[in-house]
């Protein structure tokens, strides 16, 4: 079996293994899930190093006929855009799996669904056939519903069904768009690589299909004003699931633009560019202000995702090298940084059973290691130079300065707001007088540190040597900009 | 082909008829009558095996051309036999059938199986009417089979009254059509219409009247009013059967009539069915949202599903038609599976409220997971059979650029997901009232396993079924 298929379907094997284990054998179930996730993570890392950035086109391609009557192929492959996404999916899946040891109820079902979710996510980033892409995209949906709905917080049922219906509604329109592309192409095909080369669609048709796909992707990102499911889902979801939701699921939306909307519908993409920039700026500023107003730790991070994902959209809207590089890097960084922040919220919540920011205070002195971690991740999130968050946002702003100067100017407000709400959060949680209630709070433990250290290493490394990762996807994004007729800088 | 020669190609149906009569006779002499169910099952399985093993390559006009065994009727013959086999399993699992009448139930099921095949094989207005009436009359009896239950009686009576009116209307339409074209043969009607090129108002009226009857069979809005009450009141195995059997064969007849007899009027009827499709799915889905009775929910869901299938007729292109056949097969298996689980749960809880599914995932994980999978398939989420059927009918509509219908269907799919997941939520997210695992009668397990494996296999490898569906389309 080839590498990509192995990566995608190992979790399904793991799921079968988990299902065959009696539900009382909690240790064994955890071990199976962890080993499988670890192997997948290792394979994803292997993929990262074996990937040749300078080589154009798809690599590790697999193509087998699936439904020959309608030209559906089991077609996988990776390029510079998907490789970082696959890597971070593998990594976060492993870390979140370890973070899932705190799950005590219905462990068997949890890990079975968790592994199915992993397959869906990995498959989405590998698929090169629209039909296959849609199948994986939807496979993510059902386990996510259960993971939020069963193991979530007090309003889990509402949050789960809201997430589910929102995403489903969007993706059905995406399906309509995909079918329209199929019938518009001659010969009829679902092949993304073929459709990307064949730019013969009329602008009116492109716009219609772009809108249909946009609904699916925008809800997933989520782009303002389609974001209302996100705070509910994040707040109610258990910690590891929040990590995956923020770290990977949101990226599926922006990845959709990179992989499908932009290459296949370039004229519509340019036509909608300005509107995407407007939505991006609104999202950045709106997300920032709403984060500032939150008293719930997790909700604050959730809204900050709306703001940070706005930068990705802004980078996508500007059609130049820096913008696209910045957007993709921001996707990668947001996964590591926000994933880490959600883990840190979880660490605190496990000990205090509250996420109310005003109920903490002075924890910095009690649990210094935790405090250090939280500070570094927050600084990375607010874009401190030297950490990875800065590079992504800087490149995005640089790119947008070339195309839409006003957008760059207004978006800077988002960076300022991020500093406000994150520093204020640090002040409320770590500094000030100690809330006596937490005087015996336990320090972060080794397992929790294990889930954070790899992310920390990546954040610092990318902050200092961004070129390493930029070289990885640069050739692909630059080729995409050129194909779109964007600005080569 | 004369009657004697025809019998050689009429073996599956003959097996069913013989099985039915045999059961009626043996019924007189046996006290515990359960084994008659297994006998019926043996009969239908035998018929199915024979039908599957002897698929004729060419078109055979049987009984002087009154029935036609062609690839199209073979597809529906096998579908009908699968449906009836699973229904018998469901009936075996169901508690509540009056013990004295059990034998008759299995005999009637064997007979109605024959009726279903005849529906799909009729190529002549007279035989179409007779086979529909045969299935309908048997259905009225089956719906009222639990004669000590008020709801069952009510279902039967309602079904009879609505059904009679629909049949009469349809018959009137047929007579007009005969008067206009001088033929009761579908081919003859086509030739007559092609010859004169006349699409006068009377022809449209005849067509509309004919469609009223067929819309009743497939429970398309606005002729669906009977369905929720009948499906709720009828014994659960029968309700499950009624949502798939007569409906599937109603579609078979509709396809034959439209594409063999009335292709001249395609412009008229395809826009009519686009409207009916949108109406049917919307009415079904919106009404389903507020249901608290599981059978009623499934009843409305089955109305909505008919709406999706009608999209294929509105599209009237190759992929849409393949979609119809694919959808019918997938839908039949899924719905029968779902009703089987309802039987299992209701056997124990004695309540058909959705709340009796609370915490089923903890009490009986396999049962709950099966129903969840069936609902996910009905909701059209990949990678299950229902998803692929839906993609095909969507594709048909998109190819015809019926964007409005596609958008309405997309919105409907989201609404449908809401109520399907209402039950899933009850099973997985709500705590159980007690921890007694559901009893799992063997026939129910078998029926569930068949449905489960089939929809998973078809969903992951849809190509063979799609291939078969496209070969079965003879028009």
Shape of chain A: globular
Residue share in helix of chain B: over 70%
Number of strands of chain B: 2
Low-confidence stretches of chain A: none
Strand/helix succession of chain A: HHEEHHHHHHHHHHHHHHHHHH
Please report the distance between the alpha carbons of the first and last residues of chain A.
Answer: 40 Å
Tell me the Rg of chain B in angstroms.
Answer: 21 Å
The average pLDDT value of chain A, as a whole number, equals: 89
Q: What is the succession of H and E elements of chain B?
A: HHHEEHHHHHHHHHHHHHHHHH
Strand content of chain B: under 5%
Structural class of chain B: mainly alpha
* N-end to C-end Cα span of chain B: 22 Å
Report on the biggest sheet of chain B.
2 strands, antiparallel
Low-pLDDT ranges of chain B: none
User: Which structural category fits the helices and strands of chain A?
Assistant: mainly alpha
Q: Say how many strands of chain A there are.
A: 2
Q: How many DSSP H or I helices of chain A? A: 20
What does this structure look like?
The complex is a heterodimer of chains A (489) and B (475). By secondary structure, chain A is mostly helical. Chain A has a domain at 271-489. Helices cover 75% and strands 3% of the residues of chain A. Chain A is built from 20 helices and 2 strands. Chain A has helices spanning 3-20, 26-50, 82-99, 107-126, 130-139, 141-151, 156-184, 192-197, 203-220, 229-236, 239-264, 266-292, 297-317, 321-352, 363-366, 368-382, 388-403, 405-430, 446-464, 466-483; strands at residues 59-67, 72-78. Chain A has a two-stranded antiparallel sheet with strand order 1-2. In chain A, a hairpin with a 4-residue loop joins strand 1 (59-67) and strand 2 (72-78). In chain A, helix 13 (297-317) runs antiparallel to helix 18 and helix 14 crosses helix 20 (466-483). The model of chain B has no long low-confidence stretch (mean pLDDT 90). Chain B contains 20 helices and 2 strands. Chain B has a two-stranded antiparallel sheet. Chain B has 475 residues and is an all-alpha fold. In chain B, helix 4 (71-93) packs antiparallel against helix 5 (102-121). Chain B is globular. In chain B, strand 1 and strand 2 (67-69) form a beta hairpin. Chain B has a domain at 264-475. Classes of the chains: A mainly alpha (489), B mainly alpha (475). The interface between A and B is medium-sized, with 35 and 33 residues.
């Amino acid at each position: 079996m080839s590498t990509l298929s192995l990566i995608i379907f190992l979790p399904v094997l793991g799921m079968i293994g988990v299902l065959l284990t009696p539900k009382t054998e909690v240790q064994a179930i955890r071990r199976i899930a962890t080993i499988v996730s670890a192997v997948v993570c290792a394979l994803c890392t292997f993929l990262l190093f074996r990937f040749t950035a300078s080589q154009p086109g798809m690599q590790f391609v697999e193509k087998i006929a699936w439904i020959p009557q309608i030209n559906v192929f089991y077609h996988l492959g990776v390029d510079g855009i998907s490789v970082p996404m696959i890597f971070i999916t593998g990594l976060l899946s492993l870390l979140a799996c370890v973070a899932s040891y705190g799950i005590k109820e219905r462990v068997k079902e949890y890990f079975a669904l968790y592994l199915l979710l992993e397959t869906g996510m990995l498959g989405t980033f590998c698929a090169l056939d629209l039909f296959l892409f849609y199948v994986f995209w939807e496979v993510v949906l059902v386990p996510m519903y259960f993971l939020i709905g069963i193991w979530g917080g007090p309003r889990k049922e509402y949050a789960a069904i809201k997430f589910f219906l929102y995403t489903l509604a969007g993706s059905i329109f995406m399906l309509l768009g995909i079918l329209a592309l199929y019938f518009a192409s001659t010969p009829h095909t679902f092949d993304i690589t073929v459709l990307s080369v064949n730019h013969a669609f009329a602008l009116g048709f492109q716009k219609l299909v772009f809108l249909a796909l946009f609904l699916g992707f925008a809800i997933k990102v989520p782009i303002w004003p389609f974001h209302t499911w996100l705070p509910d889902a994040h707040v109610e979801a258990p910690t590891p699931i929040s990590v995956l939701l923020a770290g990977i699921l949101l990226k599926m939306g922006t990845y959709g633009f990179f992989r499908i909307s932009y290459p296949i519908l370039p004229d519509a993409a340019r036509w909608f560019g300005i509107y995407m920039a407007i939505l991006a700026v609104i999202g950045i500023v709106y997300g920032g202000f709403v984060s500032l107003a939150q008293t719930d730790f997790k909700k604050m991070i959730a809204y900050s995702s709306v703001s940070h994902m706005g930068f990705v959209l802004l980078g996508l809207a500007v059609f130049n090298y820096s913008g696209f590089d910045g957007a993709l890097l921001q996707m990668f960084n947001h996964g590591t940084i926000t994933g880490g922040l959600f883990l840190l919220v979880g660490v605190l919540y496990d000990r205090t059973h509250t996420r109310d920011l005003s109920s903490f205070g002075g924890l910095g002195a009690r649990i210094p290691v935790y405090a250090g971690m939280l500070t570094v991740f927050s600084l990375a999130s607010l874009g401190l130079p030297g950490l990875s968050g800065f590079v992504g946002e800087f490149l995005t702003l640089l790119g947008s300065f070339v195309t839409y100067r006003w957008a760059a100017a207004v978006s800077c407000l988002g960076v300022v707001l991020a500093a406000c709400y994150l520093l204020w959060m640090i002040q409320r949680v770590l500094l000030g007088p100690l809330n006596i209630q937490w005087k015996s709070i336990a320090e972060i433990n080794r397992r929790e540190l294990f889930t954070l250290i790899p992310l920390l290493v990546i954040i610092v490394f990318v902050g200092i040597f961004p070129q390493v990762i930029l070289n990885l996807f640069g050739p692909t994004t630059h080729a995409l900009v050129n194909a779109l007729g964007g600005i080569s800088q | 082909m004369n009657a004697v020669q025809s019998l050689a190609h009429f073996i599956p149906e003959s097996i069913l008829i013989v099985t039915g009569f045999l059961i009626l006779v043996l019924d007189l002499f046996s006290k515990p009558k359960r084994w008659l169910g297994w006998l019926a099952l043996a009969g239908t399985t035998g018929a199915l095996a024979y039908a599957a093993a002897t698929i004729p390559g060419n078109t055979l006009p049987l009984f002087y051309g009154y029935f036609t065994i062609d690839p199209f009727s073979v597809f529906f013959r096998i579908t009908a036999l699968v449906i009836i086999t699973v229904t018998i399993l469901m009936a075996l699992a169901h508690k509540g059938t009056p013990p004295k009448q059990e034998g008759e139930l299995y005999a009637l099921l064997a007979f109605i199986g024959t009726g279903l095949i005849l529906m799909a094989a009729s190529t002549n207005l007279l035989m179409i009417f007779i086979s529909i009436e045969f299935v309908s009359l048997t259905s009225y009896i089956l719906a009222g089979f639990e004669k000590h239950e008020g709801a069952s009686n009510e279902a039967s009576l309602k079904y009879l009254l609505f059904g009679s009116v629909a049949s009469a209307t349809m018959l009137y339409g047929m007579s007009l059509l005969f008067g206009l074209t001088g033929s009761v043969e579908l081919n003859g009607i086509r030739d007559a219409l092609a010859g004169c090129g006349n699409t006068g108002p009377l022809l449209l009226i005849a067509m509309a009247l004919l469609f009223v009857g067929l819309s009743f069979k497939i429970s398309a809005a606005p002729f669906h009013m009977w369905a929720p009450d009948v499906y709720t009141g009828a014994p659960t195995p029968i309700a499950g059967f009624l949502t798939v059997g007569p409906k599937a064969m109603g579609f078979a007849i509709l396809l034959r009539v439209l594409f063999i007899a009335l292709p001249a009027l395609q412009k008229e009827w395809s826009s009519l069915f686009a409207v009916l499709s949108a109406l049917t799915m919307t009415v079904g889905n919106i009404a389903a949202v507020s249901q608290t009775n599981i059978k009623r929910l499934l009843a409305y869901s089955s109305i909505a599903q008919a709406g999706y299938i009608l999209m294929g007729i509105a599209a009237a292109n190759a992929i849409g038609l393949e979609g119809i056949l694919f959808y019918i097969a997938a839908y039949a298996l899924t719905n029968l599976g779902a009703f089987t689980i309802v039987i299992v749960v209701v056997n124990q809880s004695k309540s058909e409220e959705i709340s009796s599914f609370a915490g089923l995932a903890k009490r009986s994980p396999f049962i709950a997971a099966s129903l969840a999978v069936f609902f996910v398939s009905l909701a059209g989420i990949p990678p299950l059979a229902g998803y692929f059927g839906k993609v095909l009918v969507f594709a048909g509509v998109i190819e015809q650029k019926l964007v409005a219908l596609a958008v309405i269907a997309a919105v409907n799919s989201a609404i449908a997901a809401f109520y399907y997941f209402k039950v899933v939520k009850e099973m997985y997210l709500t705590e159980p009232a007690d921890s007694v695992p559901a009893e799992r009668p063997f026939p129910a397990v078998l029926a569930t396993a068949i449905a489960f494996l089939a929809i998973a296999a078809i969903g992951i490898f849809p190509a063979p079924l799609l291939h078969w569906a496209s070969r079965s389309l003879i028009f």
